[in-house]
């Protein structure tokens, strides 16, 4: 069997090589090779060689453990800045990726709707660290993050990010009946090109709704605190956006015609087909839980 794209091992300067399979615009970590080097390896309790944890990934993990205190808590601005400054320094290699991977070089036309793949680096009740892999033209459709703070750091590729907040955040956690339109303010609508700064969605600004559209194959690291939980009322809703000018709903007193392009109408929709994702195992460097002694 011939597999398009084949196997590519990105080059790292330390002791690990991550191998990612690229088949029909999907990315898949399939194996991990540990090169024997004299200095840059260590062994766990079971004498397995484990990858060295990049400093920035460990700092990010420790920062998340300190800052995310569970449902109902929102990080302080100083804490948001702290996480952003760590994320701004992050490189693809810190999570075992490289721009040399075939997945990120793919230029062939995509057949049908390309599927998004994701991998979870770490998840607990307070936060989750995930990477999403989007082939070119793939979309993570417009969705919300009720009561959650979201940090998104584009590691590789070019991506269009669109985000909205509700104009009237009252009852923003309530589900809307289908076909009902609700006014939202456009917060971001631009193309991000890695390496670039982190974008943040805040739970207190009314909605924190976003959409990712890959222009080239992309990898984006998402930190979400707290994670989605249906049981705790943090389920994901999906939306379709309409231009402000498309509907008149007596809002013109609030929004002038000139400001119209800064707003949109959001319609809650059923879970779209292109929201389905494939999950792969994370085989990159694993941040370490270091409990304080005594
Ligand atoms: Fe999201």
From TrEMBL:
One of its GO terms (biological process) is detection of hypoxia. It catalyses: L-cysteine + O2 = 3-sulfino-L-alanine + H(+). SUPFAM superfamilies: RmlC-like cupins. Its EC number is 1.13.11.20. Pfam families: PCO_ADO (PF07847). Its cofactor is Fe(2+). It is an enzyme of class 1 (oxidoreductase). The keyword Iron applies. Keywords: Iron, Metal-binding, Oxidoreductase. GO terms for molecular function: cysteine dioxygenase activity; metal ion binding. It comes from the Eukaryota. The keyword Oxidoreductase applies. Belongs to the cysteine dioxygenase family. This is cysteine dioxygenase. It comes from Corchorus capsularis. The lineage of its organism: Eukaryota, Viridiplantae, Streptophyta, Embryophyta, Tracheophyta.
């Amino acid at each position: 069997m011939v597999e398009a794209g084949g196997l590519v091992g990105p080059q790292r300067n330390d002791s690990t090589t991550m191998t990612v399979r690229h088949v029909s615009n999907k990315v898949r970590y399939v194996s991990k090779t540990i090169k024997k080097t004299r200095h840059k390896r260590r062994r766990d309790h079971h004498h397995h060689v484990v990858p060295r944890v990049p400093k920035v990934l460990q700092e990010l993990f420790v920062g998340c453990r300190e800052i995310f205190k569970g449902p109902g808590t929102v990080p302080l601005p100083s804490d948001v800045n702290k996480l952003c400054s760590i994320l701004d320094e992050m490189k693809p290699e810190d999570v075992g990726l490289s721009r040399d991977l075939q997945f990120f070089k793919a230029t062939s036309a995509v057949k049908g709707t390309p599927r998004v793949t994701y991998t979870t680096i770490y998840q607990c009740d307070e936060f989750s660290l995930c990477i999403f892999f989007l082939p070119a033209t793939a979309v993570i459709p417009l969705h919300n993050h009720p009561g959650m703070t979201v940090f998104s750091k584009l590691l590789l590729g070019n991506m269009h990010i669109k985000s909205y907040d509700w104009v009237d955040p009252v009852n923003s956690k309530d589900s809307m009946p289908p076909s009902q339109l609700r006014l939202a303010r456009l917060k971001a609508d631009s193309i991000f090109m890695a390496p670039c700064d982190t974008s943040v969605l805040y739970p207190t600004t009314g909605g924190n709704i976003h959409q990712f559209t890959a222009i080239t194959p992309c990898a984006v690291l998402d930190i979400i605190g707290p994670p989605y939980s249906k049981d705790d009322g943090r389920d994901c809703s999906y939306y379709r956006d309409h231009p402000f000018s498309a509907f008149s709903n007596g809002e013109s007193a609030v929004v002038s015609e000139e400001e119209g392009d800064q707003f949109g109408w959001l319609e809650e929709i059923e879970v779209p087909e292109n929201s389905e994702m494939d999950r792969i195992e994370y085989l990159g460097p694993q941040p370490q839980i270091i409990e304080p002694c005594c």
